[in-house]
Specification:
The protein has helices at residues 14-39, 44-66, 72-109. It has 110 residues and is mainly α. Helix 2 packs antiparallel against helix 3. The longest helix is centred in the C-terminal third of the chain and has 38 residues, at 72-109.
């Protein structure tokens, strides 16, 4: 466990803790507040897709902004998540369109 502080290793000093408390915690809290308030304006399916895309957005942000190197396994994971999201979205649209057409046929025969 390399992340545990050991004697002789530098620990998080006071300025680091202050910066962490002033930036990370309020930013996270603000993001959750905004997300909860805006989430009511979209469907459950779109919310699930957004949550599913979160690791992909994180990986791409790390790659472009921080120079993170993505392994082939991580790239395949991103592709699988994107494929699943597209499949769910396109299949859902097809089912909705089919249901709407069958409703139109039923109402026109009445």
């Amino acid at each position: 466990m390399d992340w545990l502080p050991r004697p002789g290793r530098s620990k998080l000093n006071r300025p680091v803790w202050i910066a962490l408390l002033l930036t990370a915690i309020p930013a996270t809290a603000l993001a959750f507040l905004i997300q909860n308030n805006v989430q009511r304006f979209t469907s459950a399916t779109h919310t699930a897709i957004i949550f599913t895309m979160e690791p992909v957005f994180a990986a791409l942000s790390a790659y472009f902004l921080a120079g993170e190197i993505l392994t082939p396994r991580q790239i395949i994971g991103c592709i699988l998540i994107l494929s699943g999201m597209l499949l769910a979205e396109l299949k859902g649209k097809h089912i909705r369109m089919t249901n709407n057409k069958s409703k139109e046929v039923q109402t026109s025969t009445l």
